[in-house]
Specification:
about 260 residues, alpha+beta
Length: about 260
């Protein structure tokens, strides 16, 4: 999600091209709605978009006078383990000095913190913070919250938070090691391991290739006395199909 942008940057367009099947957002930024399942939840009267250019130099920030408020984005996510990357670059760093600091949290619907970065200085440099191992046991909503940490009355607007982008990436499911053996029992073990992989975790094309390979392996396993060579060929093919799986999760790099 490219905060504050009214059109995708070059980076955003590249993501859309490379991850068409798994990218969740079709616009760079928006207010939250239940229909879309993502966006900022602050009143539109409090926040605004600024900047142009790349993902860092387009920002969403608070309008002057809306001080000491938390900026919140809400996302509907499937069950799984995620990392959340927040990007920053302050176009007004020369006036903010050391006053623009933020606490970054990811929370569930009950407000329980799932991950936290206690203090990040938002400067004029392009940088980011990654929060890892955010696990959801079931599909639910999470919020990404940016809270101001400093209050300097003489420079109060420069204490407010801003954000350049948020990227949410679902981590790939772990893939089993296919056993190296030329026995029929080994082939059955390889087939069973391959079947533990879930279609939802991978792109349709790569998972279909695995399914086709499993079907071929099952035909060989169904033979009364398949040759060791035939068994090993199928085990090798299963191992190759697993290695070639393209994770819908890891490849998403969801700019949402």
């Amino acid at each position: 999600m490219d905060c504050g942008a009214n059109a995708f940057s070059a980076e955003g367009k590249a993501y859309r091209k490379d991850y068409t099947d798994t990218l969740k957002n079709t616009v760079p930024d928006q207010a939250y709605s239940e229909t879309s399942g993502w966006g900022f939840t602050n009143p539109a009267s409090e926040v605004e978009a600024n900047g142009s250019g790349d993902a860092y130099t387009t920002i969403r920030n608070f309008k002057a006078g809306n001080n000491q408020k938390t900026m919140t984005y809400k996302f509907a996510l499937d069950a799984g383990t995620y990392e959340v990357v927040t990007g920053f670059c302050d176009p007004w760093a020369q006036w903010a000095g050391d006053d623009r600091h933020t606490k970054i949290t990811v929370a569930d619907e009950a407000g329980t913190e799932l991950a936290v970065h206690e203090d990040h200085k938002i400067s004029g440099s392009k940088d980011s913070v990654t929060l890892e191992n955010i696990t959801l046991s079931e599909a639910s909503n999470v919020t990404v919250n940016l809270s101001p940490l400093k209050k300097v009355d003489s420079n109060i607007d420069s204490c407010d938070v801003l954000v350049s982008f948020i990227v949410i990436v679902k981590k790939a499911a772990e893939q089993p090691d296919i056993p190296k053996t030329d026995t029929k029992a080994g082939l059955k073990a390889a087939i069973d391991l391959a079947k533990t992989l879930k279609a939802d975790d991978y792109t349709a094309a790569s998972y279909k290739a695995l399914s086709d390979t499993i079907a071929s392996a099952e035909k060989v396993y169904a033979e009364t006395e398949p040759s060791a060579e035939a068994v090993q060929t199928q085990i090798n093919a299963l191992a190759e199909a697993v290695r070639n799986l393209k994770s819908a999760a890891a490849d998403t790099k969801k700019k949402t």
